[in-house]
């Protein structure tokens, strides 16, 4: 197990260096931050019923969405692409390969998510007078909500990546429900503006609670009156995110093992042949 951790951390460090040198991938992540800043910059009103600028609510919501996106969009695409390239097949022949691979991916995702979050908050504070935690308690809340939020979405993203058919269909299958949650989870405007049934559906998923937890860390306490329950409900935030984290791990581990076990040279060749016949470039 120690060797797997060491190998995973080494692999993760290599993948991070490759990511930082890949201008195309880095520009995609920077674009997400830029879009959030542009949207927030054009909002001048206050959150209804409070003196909190709408800009602050939107930046806090996008902070949660960036974490959610890394786990639920970026990670599944990475896993599906590398499965198509034969990475899982090669790992089957490597002692400790699968555990080391998962450690590397967790390191990559955590650094990417935390880096995106930090960039958004710092840039927002400098360019759009965005919110930052006001004291040690708020910083602690930011830390545990971010940690639990990633634990809630990263295993779920890994499970999704294990069952998606191929990279060409992965983005289409993920983006629609993800964008739906972005709109219905109170990340871009107060959830109280939505019909109650929509609020109830959004409350089942982690993004709503990630956004609410980050708002509690970044916005003044008076802003809680704009929440559906009139409070931050931090115990419920912790409970829901923990439940999703446990569920994600219980589902992701067997699905990833199954995906690795099913990989074979014939399956990989058949997928490449099918991709070639459809006119798509082979992975």
Describe the protein's architecture and organization.
It is built from eleven helices and no strands. The protein has helices spanning 2-21, 23-41, 54-84, 87-92, 97-127, 136-163, 167-184, 196-202, 206-218, 234-262, 265-277. The mean pLDDT is 82.
Element layout with pairings:
Blueprint: H1 2-21, H2 23-41, H3 54-84, H4 87-92, H5 97-127, H6 136-163, H7 167-184, H8 196-202, H9 206-218, H10 234-262, H11 265-277
Helix pairs in contact: 1-5, 2-3, 2-5, 3-5, 3-6, 3-7, 3-9, 6-9, 6-10, 9-10
Short structural description:
This protein has 283 residues and is mainly alpha-helical. Helices cover 76% and strands 0% of the residues.
Mean pLDDT: 82
Spans where pLDDT lies below 50 across 5 or more residues: none
Indicate the multimeric state: single chain
The separation of the N and C termini measures: 31 Å
Task: Supply database-style keywords.
11 helices, 283 residues, mainly alpha, single chain
């Amino acid at each position: 197990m120690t060797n797997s951790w060491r190998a995973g951390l080494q692999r993760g460090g290599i993948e991070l260096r490759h990511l930082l040198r890949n201008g195309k991938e880095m520009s995609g992540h920077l674009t997400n931050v830029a879009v959030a800043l542009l949207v927030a910059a054009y909002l001048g009103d206050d959150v209804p019923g409070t003196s909190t600028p709408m800009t602050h609510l939107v930046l806090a919501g996008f902070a949660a969405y960036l974490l959610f996106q890394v786990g639920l969009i970026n990670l599944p695409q990475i896993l599906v692409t590398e499965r198509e390239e034969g990475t899982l097949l090669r790992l089957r022949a490597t002692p400790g390969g699968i555990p080391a691979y998962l450690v590397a991916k967790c390191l990559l995702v955590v650094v990417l998510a935390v880096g995106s979050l930090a960039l958004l908050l710092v840039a927002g504070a400098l360019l759009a007078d965005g919110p930052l935690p006001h004291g040690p308690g708020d910083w602690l809340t930011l830390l545990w909500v971010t940690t639990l939020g990633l634990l809630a979405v990263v295993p779920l993203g890994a499970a999704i990546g294990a069952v998606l058919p191929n990279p060409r269909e992965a983005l289409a299958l993920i983006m629609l429900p993800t964008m739906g949650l972005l709109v219905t989870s109170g990340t871009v405007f107060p959830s109280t503006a939505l019909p109650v049934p929509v609020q109830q559906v959004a409350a089942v998923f982690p993004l709503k609670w990630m956004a609410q937890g980050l708002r509690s860390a970044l916005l003044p306490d008076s802003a809680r009156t704009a929440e559906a329950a009139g409070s931050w409900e931090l115990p419920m935030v912790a409970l829901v995110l923990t439940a999703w984290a446990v569920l994600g791990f219980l589902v992701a581990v067997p699905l990833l093992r199954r995906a690795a076990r099913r990989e074979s040279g014939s399956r990989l060749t058949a997928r490449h042949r099918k991709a070639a016949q459809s006119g798509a470039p082979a992975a």
